[in-house]
Amino acid sequence: MTNQTWLTQEAADRLRAELAELEGPKFADIVKKIEAARAEGDLKENGGYHAAREEQGKIVGRIRQLKHMLENAHIGNPPESESGVVGLGMIITIDMAGDEMTFLLGSREIASGDVDVYSEKSPLGAAVLGSKVGDTVSYEAPNKKVFPVKVLDAKPF
Question: What are the structural domains, with CATH classification, of the chain?
């Protein structure tokens, strides 16, 4: 389960549409650009060719990322009620060392809008996942310092 990504149905549909666009029209367009640039001659000094190949590499990378994510996705609905238990697809507000912080717990792919996102696999996400509003949990920062984190709020996204 460590390789699974939690997605809402809406996010999964959005990713499938992006994948179809990249594999279809976008890929065909970049192939045409490469062929046109290749027809210009010397590939060593051909900036258009190199730019098109770089763009093709980015598209292929994103296609692989999307396929992997969708193949390993756990598609579900965000919690509908405010149970106070921290779960995937929830907006979490915490107090860490006197600083209040609000973020979405889950995948960056489910976020819509301007909200910070922490994966449930990240140290902070793993620390708060499953806790309840009012609980204080320990979070080990990347520098190995341990901070107490108090869960102030957990509500559906």
Answer: 5-75 (1.10.287.180), 90-156 (3.10.50.30)
